Amino acid sequence: MAAADAMTDAARHREAVAIAPGVHWIGALDPALRTFDIILRTEQGTTYNAYLVRGRDGVAVIDTVKAEFAEEFFARLESVADYGEIRAIVLNHLEPDHSGALPELLRRAPQATLYISARAPAILNGLLKSVVPRPKPPLVTVKTGDSLSLGERKLRFLLTPFVHWPDTQCTYLADEGVLFCGDLFGCHLCDGRLFDDRIGEFWPAIDYYYAHIMRPFAHQVREALAEILPLEPRVLAPTHGPILRERPRRYLEHYQALARRPANGPPRLAIFYISAYGNTAQMAEAIAAGAGEADGVQVSTHDIETGETAAFLDLIEGADAVAFGSPTINGDAVKPVWDLLSSLATIDVKGKRAGAFGSYGWSGEAIWLIEERLRGLKMQLPVPGLRIKLIPSTEEIAACHAFGRQLADSLVGGPGSARTLDLAEIG
User: For 375-384, what is the mean pLDDT?
Assistant: First the structure.
């Protein structure tokens, strides 16, 4: 799609766009953005979606935009409402790309009450502390089931914590079936036609966004979907990307598939290693052999020198325990190991069992550094890291067997699971 084609309709004017009776999009377009939050590529730009809902007794604004795009946001808001009509400001998520225009909106509509989740006040304080003079709006913290009346219509709140911040929530307009869903179901795609049925297919953008934003919180996504699916919304209105109105259930079902738990089966231990002279590889093979002696544990080994990190992440996400092996070079683990370890922030590894091992020539810091990273990710380390100087001896290969067996036993409650491995006992 040519950039000129994408920037039609909404980009040609600064007027609100109706998405349902009395409901308007008042967001902003950012076609030039090429990186978001440092970690995401945004070759197609993004949108900052904000919405306005009109009822008999007043107007509610749902989310705002990034501060740099406030002028565009206010122009669209003014095309459908006066500031004096604004009774409520709802922030489903307080990240700066959705709350950037909030201080100015509060200045223009000082009578408005701010509605946020119970976990959001501390974040709000952090956002407003440098604003002079600091606004102090009437504030209501909400929980699932609470509602806001605009007269003949109500906005109902649904807390969805940690998808993907602690404060996140959804807001549902039942009479029109519109779910204002925050970052859920969003993507980075800037297209002035706004609606999915006018844009065409963009599943890769949804999948890319999910993988980098939502995947670490798959458990919380599943909990949110359990609350959202029974609502059977007719429109999904996320804060980034197209508004989803053509068969919205397919987006819900797609998210279900993305967030699905790994299939039940035997406990799985995945061993990842890289080896400069074959010594760490020998350790990995011996660890796998020892782990294979545990009853019912499925063991796999993976040389990460030639593999793709994305494929390894799928394996780690599905594993119950993981072990990472690296030689020590210049007092550190080698780069492919760090690339893989840094990528673990994009999946849910909290509570998984893990271990570190490797051969070294001088000092062996790699194992300690890997363990520090694993602890930082809140993984469990049931076995102390195993360091072997240069070429493993017969006794040290036996230690590797014991390391693997105890790591595997920690999954099935075997004899090695309740004690700390003492290498002095081996050989």
Answer: 97
